[in-house]
Amino acid sequence: MIDAPAKQGSPCIWVDADACPNVIKDILFRAAERARVETILVANQRIRTPPSRFVRSIQVTGGLDAADEEIVSRIKTGDLVITADIPLAARVLEKGALALNPRGELYTSDSIGQRLSMRNFMDELRGAGVNTGGPAGLHPRDRQAFANQLDTWLSRQTS
């Protein structure tokens, strides 16, 4: 039996792929095959993807926000965007799509304002020379939280 490609107009998964951890990409690749959902990785560099009818990548040229612009210009209501970029997540929510970070946190209209404020505050501190450190490493519980949120979204697509 030949697998059919994702249905036209079905919700897609978009991945802000430049900074997405490989372990999260692997989860997405398996889920795309299992659920037969179109999954598109967008990055400033070439991204390797497995051979699949459901997974592809788009390489954008340009500045730091070129991948973000590409994602925002293409998403539609109901799509899922995987990103740790809080300003991108805010734009995604404004367009009626969902945003999930690689640690399994689903951004919501209730939480995004606070997240943007904290991000801007930390950016100001870094601009003033304060070493704020980087994000903690991805823990197995983060991967599990991500997989759980992804499965919840996928189950809503098939019901």
Order of strands side by side in the largest beta sheet? 3-2-1-4-5-6
Contiguous runs where pLDDT drops below 50 for at least 5 residues: 1-7
Give the total of beta strands: 6
End-to-end separation in angstroms reads 23 Å
Q: What would you call the quaternary organization?
A: single chain
Would you spell out the secondary-structure blueprint of this structure?
Blueprint: E1 13-16, H1 22-35, E2 39-43, E3 55-59, H2 66-74, E4 80-82, H3 86-94, E5 98-100, E6 106-107, H4 109-127, H5 140-158
Parallel strand pairs: 1-2, 1-4, 2-3, 4-5
Antiparallel strand pairs: 5-6
Helix pairs in contact: 1-5, 3-4
Structural descriptors:
14% strand; 159 residues; globular; six-stranded mixed β-sheet; alpha/beta
Structure at a glance:
By secondary structure, the protein is of the alpha/beta class. It has helices at residues 22-35, 66-74, 86-94, 109-127, 140-158; strands at 13-16, 39-43, 55-59, 80-82, 98-100, 106-107. It is 44% helix and 14% strand.
Structure description:
The protein is an alpha/beta fold and 159 residues long. It is 44% helix and 14% strand. It contains five helices and six strands. Helix 1 (22-35) runs parallel beside helix 5 (140-158) and helix 3 (86-94) packs antiparallel against helix 4.
